[in-house]
Every structure is written in C-alpha cells, then in structure tokens.
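Worked Example 4.2. Read the sequence first, then its structure tokens.
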Amino acid sequence: MLKNYIKVAVRNLIRNKPYVFINVLGLSVAIAICVVIYLNYSHSVDSNREHENYRETFKVNGTWILNGDPEGVGIAPMPLTTMIKNDIGAIKDAVRYHVKGEVVKRGDDVFREDVAYVDDTFLEVFDFSLREGSKDAIKNPGQIIISRQMAIRFFNDEPALGKEIRILSNGKEFLYTVGGVLNELPTNSTFDLDAALISIETYFNHYPETERNNWAEWVDGVFVQLHNAADKELVEQQLAAYLPQQNDANEQMPYAGFYLDRIDEWAHNEKYLRYGNFRSGMASSALWGLNSSAILILLLSCFNFTNTSISFSNRRLKEIGIRKVFGGMRSQLITQFLIENLMLILTALVIGLVLAEMLVPAFNDLFWFVRLELDLLGNFKLLAFLIVLMLLVAAFSAIYPAIYVSSFKPVNIFQGNVKFGSGNMFLRVLIAGQFIITVYNIFASIVFYQNGKYQTTMDQGYDIHQSIVVPIDGERDFIKLKNNLSQNPEISSIAGSRTQIAFSTDFATFEHKENEQEVGWLQIGHDYLRTMGIDIVQGRDFEDGVDNYLSKKLIINEQLVKDLGWEYGEETVLGRRLFLDSAYYTVVGIARNFHEKLLFKGGDIRPAIITLTPPENFRYLTVRSESDLTRVNDKVKEQWAQVIPDIPYTGYYQSRAIEVVEDTNYIIDRVNWFVAVISIMLSAIGLYTLVSLNVIKRIKEIGIRKVLGASVLSIVQLLNRNFAGLLLIGAVLGSFSGYLVMDWLLDIIYAYRLPLNLWPLLFSVLLLVVVAATTVGAKVYNAAKVNPVDHLRNE
C-alpha cells in the first residue's frame, strides 16, 4: 500500500514541476537559514560548557551600590583566593586569572603578547587540552605554556616544546622554557587564550612592588570549583565575611556583597560588569534578533507551502472525485496528500542542508568572533533540532492542505460547484501575514541602515579623524618619542595621558546631595584637549608652567554642570570645588561634551571630570596632524623603531573608535537586508499563488463576463480586488508593528539614534506594491485577455 502511495506521489510531483519548484525553493531557503541560526544560538548557549565540571565552576564577582542601584564588578581582590580556599569547606578549589600585556622575545623577534598569570591548579579546574607538553608545566616557575597561535608566530611549524622565550616585564628580562602548547579553544569560550599561561608566583617576581596580601591589589578573575553546585548560596553567604577587608582597603569602591556566576551563564553576563575584562558572547539583542528573523522567514515559507499546496491541488479535483466515487476513503486521500507533502519537505531538507553548508562560511566571515561548523554526524543536538523542525513544518504546512483538499464532495466536484478557496479565512490570514512580515522586514532594514549611517557621521564632541594614539610605558617612553616627533612639521601637537577616550576609561565618585555621583575620569597631560580637539566652552585649559597634578585643578564637562544643577557663568561654576580622591579640586574650565565610549547602549554622554596626571603615569601618547595620517603614522612608526627598538609598535588611529561602530552596523545591515530580500522573494511567491488560486477559481466567471462585454481593465480590477484589500491590511499592520518594535529595539541597541519618521514606512509599502504588481500583473492580464471560448468550452 505504501509503495502505491509513493508511486502516485512521484508521478504527481513530476507532473507539477512548478508546484514542486516553488515549495521546495521557499522551504529549503528557510530551513538553511534556521539551521545556521540554530548553530549560532547553540554556539552561544553552550559557551564554556566544554569544561567537564562547568556546573560546579563559578566566577566570583562583586556588587557595588551606586546611586542606590546595584552593579556587578568583575575584578576581585588578590588575596581572596588563598583565604576562601582554606576557610570555606564547600569550595573544592579556587584559582586566579590575571592578564598583563608583556613584551615577548624569541631571538631577534619581538612581540607584544598577553600573558595570563594563573594559580598552579588552573588547568585542573578548567579542561584546556594541550597539543604538546604537560599541564604540570604551569607548576614550574621556569616554564611557560603558550597558545597554538603563539607557537605558530614564534616557531612557525617547528615543535615548540623545550624552546626558550624571554619576557620583558617591568623593565626586566626573564627567561622561560616552553613546557606546553594549548590546543585552540572553541570560539564560544570566554577565555581568549591566545596568550601565554604562567604561574602567578612569577607575577610577584615580575612586579615585586605588588603585595600578595594587599586587598587593594586586583586580579581579572577569581574562579571557584564547588564540591556540590547546590552549595552556591551557602558559599555566597560565607563570602560576606570578607567584605570588611575588601571595603577597608578600597574606600572608593566598597562592595555590598560577593556573588557566584556559573561559568556558562557568566559568558553572557561579563559584558554587563564593570571591569569585565573577559571576552563576552554575542549580545542578547543580536542573538534574539537573529532568532526572530529565522522564525519569520520560516513562517513565510510555511505560509507559501500551504497556499501553493491548495492552489495546485485544483488540477486534481476530478482525481479526488473519482477516487471517492470508487470507494476511496477520505483517510486514504489524506495519507496520499500527506506523503506528497512530506516528500517535498524531505527534499527541501536535503537542499536546505546543502545551502546551510554554503551559508555557514559566509556567516563566519560576517561574525568574525563566531566559528560555526555543520556536523550532522557529531552534533546530536542539531539532529534533534532538525527532527523537531521537520515535525513543526509538517504539522503547520502539510496537514492542513491534505485535510482541506480531501474534504470536497464528489457531487460538487462533478457539478462544478466546488468553491475552491472561496471564503477560506485561514488562507486570507496567511496571505495578510506574509504582507505584514515583509513590510516589517523592509522597514527594519531601512531604519537600521539609516541609524548605522547616523552613528558614523554624528559629532563625537572631539576630532576623531586627525589623531594617532600610541600605547607607551610611562614618562621615559613619552619623552623619547616626543623629542623626536616634535621635529616633524606635519605634527601639530603631541600629548600624553593615562586614559584614552573610547579605549581606556576610568571613573571617580564624589558625594552630591547625599548621593554618590559617578563621573567619567579623564587623566591627561598638558595639550591633550587641544590635541584631541575638545573645546573649552568656559574658563580655560590647563596651562603648562602654571598647572600640574599637585595644583588640584579640574575641568568638567557640560553634562556634569547640568547634573550638578549649576548655572553657567564664571561666578557660579568656575572656582567651585569638588571633593575627589581624598582632596578638594578647583574648577577652572568647562569642556564641551564628548563621547568617551562607543555609541551603543551604555555609550551615552556621561558627566566627566578632567585632571592632570604625572608623566610617569602616561600610558598613551597622542599625535595630532592635519596631513595624511597614513604617512604620518609611518613616520611615527619609524621614530618608534629608533628610540624604543625592543618593543613592537602598536599605534592606531583614534578613528578606530568609530570603526568598531561601523563594523557592528555593517553586520546589522547585512543581516537585515538579507532577511528583507528573502522576505520579498517569499512574498512574491505567495502573491503568485494567491492570484493563481483566484484565477482558477473564477475562470468561467471571467469567460462569461467577457461574453457579456466586460473590458480587460474591469476584469483585472475584479481579480485584484481581494488582493488589494489584503495588501492594505498587511501594509497597515506591518507598518504599525514595525514602528512599535523598531522604536523599542533601537532604544535597546543605541545610546543615540534617529527618531522614526514616515518615509521608511511609505517606502516599505511602496516597494511591496511594486513587487506585487510586477509579480502578479502579467498573470492577471493574461487571464483577462484569454478568449472566452477557451474558458467555456467544457460547459
């Protein structure tokens, strides 16, 4: 029996090639997109789960209360690990992880690399595998474990084990032997281990001024492994005993408590922590944006599948009638149509997987921080997802057409009384739903494109395009480089700073109206504001020979003046004093507002203070030039090689701050335009089937109207009437939903964005109308022009 069903199904599908092509095309594209987006979702959700004991492993974070609101802090005190390991019985092990940028030498080659200082049992808590050497190398102070990438940079394809490298740290040189090479980590690991691992005991040799028991010393992360994950709350309560020591040593940042974040969840929370120094996963807004786009595309393809299945079944009405007359049961008809639809779905699945294999590399190129792999045999979760996906598609797309088409009565079929699709509200809802989704997707792509352009062209409050930033190490590097660069006539100014706008920010707090006020803190040298193009709107800049870091002078931005409730005017602002960092500072100037962070959410202009810092604290040298920056950068690099030959040059353009925004908006644009194009394509297919159904249903009516003298234009208007109504409903609801969703979504993503206006909505609707007219115009016109004899010859 099954063999007969399959034979009939194959014959019918071969006879209806357009039907097969339309359904398979739409569904295979949707399946491919869903597979890729599922892989991305799984990649994000499974962050850090490569470690066997991830359920028992937690990061210790702190909570800081600012203006009455709790805020997570990612760093932890240096001595905390040793104490809790000894004092808290529920803790199986505790380890530290602290990264420093160091100069690493291999022969005459010099590299700037990250060196992670960790406790000896770090590789026992975390399951990082080695391709060479032993994990015990971390316990040997004379050995170092390097990443696979570092091994390639240092030694090319040669074995790295046993070879020597030198680390230049804090002005001294230390020799180490390579005791191990790490395998490459999955890209969803929060640890970015393109770095060297070395015992934290060597940290105190590299930096002897660091006191290992000083609670004012910080590490990037403290991790604990519990005997039982259920003891999490108990451990958090016991950690409260260390708050007095923490807060006595850090009065500027008193903790309200410690808490534990399981490492797979921490992977998504790190980005929201103050001083969260680890790599974070894909933002939740991006993750769910991609998920929702895939769901919308799948819905569109399912709508099309249902419509085309019903539309092309019109050719089989007599087959259905004859089957029923000769005793065929409705259940047999349902089974026949279900098998045909399932064969189409399975065909679409195979083609969809092939398309997904092609889309994965493109997705990886677009999202450079993601590396997806389509592995059907080794990924059981993916297989389970595909099974569930196919069941959902079959339930939504195959069952209804089979039941609907098999419901016709033979007497109505042979009398020609079957009202095929007439009054079927479900089909109308599907078509209107297609229009809604398409209008929304077009509108979203336009709005994101507009805001992306706005982000890259808006005023940053400083001159972002005329500066080169060079990381340095203190006063000695600054003086060497400045003395040489000052001879270059293309360089208009040079300044040093401890912090750098957009790349290295700090904060300070002071009490105001019985609340703690947090402000951004820019610590600079003379001429920095002029070099960066930050205007002084009132008062004066710091003057060389008059002001220094001991004079306790202060410049504040316009936003801080507003937040403090001060009025403009030299008598009301200039000369006022603020208690900051255990001393009173006098306001000598007001700077124009500037963006010290990226323009995404959290990058709002915040109140800021600007103070002088001693040259020994300089970590950046900033060069300003009105000439070609590429040429100037080459000159700076040459001078660097002459005066600081032992350290690699790592200068960059200040405009890199906006390049990060451009890259992110590029990704958003490409994803949204892709979704919009696919939506338009699927909607065009849906419109074609709608008109085909309408023409088939009214073919004899068209012939009679033409015999009675109806014009082609009047028939075209008649056939398009229902379609136009559904298009209007879809345009209105799509525009309304698009406006509400985008207004909410833009507020989540951007700190500053354009207000929504009418023209993107109008353009979205107009584009859909043009596509609709192009898609169905010829079909309707040809149907209206056909000779009425051809329509009525069977009567």
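Now turn to a second chain, presented in exactly the same format:
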Amino acid sequence: MLDRFAATFLDLDVATRYAPQLLAGLLVTLAVGLAVIATGLGVGLALAVLRAFAIRPVNFVMIQVVDIFRALPPLVIILIIYFGFPSIGIVIPSFVVLWLSLSAVLAAFSEEVFWAGITAIPAGQWMAARSTGLSFPQTLGWVILPQALRIALPPLTSRTIAITKNTALGSAIGVNEILGQATSAEAFSANATPLTMAAVLYVLLFLPLVIASRSLEHRYNVARR
C-alpha cells in the first residue's frame, strides 16, 4: 500500500525530470501574483480615496461595480474575458487576462477594506484636523489615511492571500503557472508526483504569508487592548 502510494505521488525520477518545468511555473506564479497585488491594492486604495470625496453619482457607480466583482467567482470573470471578448474583436493574452481578472477582484475587496478603515476613524479627528486649517485632501492624506491603513492591514493581508492563490485558475486558460505546469507534467508522465510537487510549492510560497498575516492580526489585537 505504502509502496504504491510512494510510486504514485512521490516518484523521485518523475520529480527530477519535471522539476525545471515546475520551477518555471513558480516564476510565472510569482510574476502574476506580484502584478495582481500591486495593481489590485493600488486601484483599491485609489477607489477608497475617491469614495471619501462623496461624489454621489461616482460613488453610486463605483459601489455597484465593486459589488459585482465581489459577487462573481474569479473563474467566471477569467472565462468571460478570455473566451467572450474575442467574439467582439478583443483578444487578450492569457497572462494578461489572469492579471486583469484577479486585480479587479482584489481591487473590489481592498476598496471595501480601505473604506472600512477610513470610516473607522472617529469624526472628531476629521474636525480637529480641519480646525487647524488643513484642507479636506490634506486631512485625508496626512491624518486619516495613515491610521486607516494600519486598521486595514490585517484583514487586507488575509484577503490578498486568498485572492492571489487564485493564480492557479490560470491553468484553465493555458497560463503556465505552477498548476498548469503540474497538470501538463502529470499528463505526460501518467504519475501524480508533479501535482504533489505543485502542492509543496504552493505551501512554500503562501505559508509564510499566512503566518505573517496571523502575526499582523495578533499584533493589531494586542495593540487595541
């Protein structure tokens, strides 16, 4: 039983043969993940700041769009863009589709987290800052946002990890990230060892982030006591 399990999931020859392929997939996953984090958080913060200016028509449209992207599963967004857009003459490379789709989802969730941080700041701080002669943008940028970012950091870290792990969905549209390389190797080798290797790579990649997220949440909870 154990020998059969080892031969299926832990074949050293198969692991050695396909290690370069899996490592190439790891680099693609890192590239997509970093691009998604930078774009998603940047756009999310910009939207939260724009929402603070309380421009009703803009906020109404923004909230509807954000809610749609929060409600839709990331895979649905990816497939709509990748398979649907070519029918109207827009062809986007699979890597870019994955980046744009996950960035939009992360931006939607991070906007809500940033906005929650902004609204958590007591109104008295707004009034005190304005009474010193600071303009609304100055109050928002110098007084409110630094505190809001500190509040938003723990939940934002967890949400970012959860969404970034969806880079594995790139295998559905031919992105050669970790899972895409692993499934290809599994098909050619008729062995599940590449999938085991993919699982190990995902753990090595995301476990430190999960631990860091837990540490941030603990430090924030301690600081509030």
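Notes for the reader: The chain has a mean pLDDT of 92. The domain at 18-224 is CATH 1.10.3720.10 (MetI-like fold).
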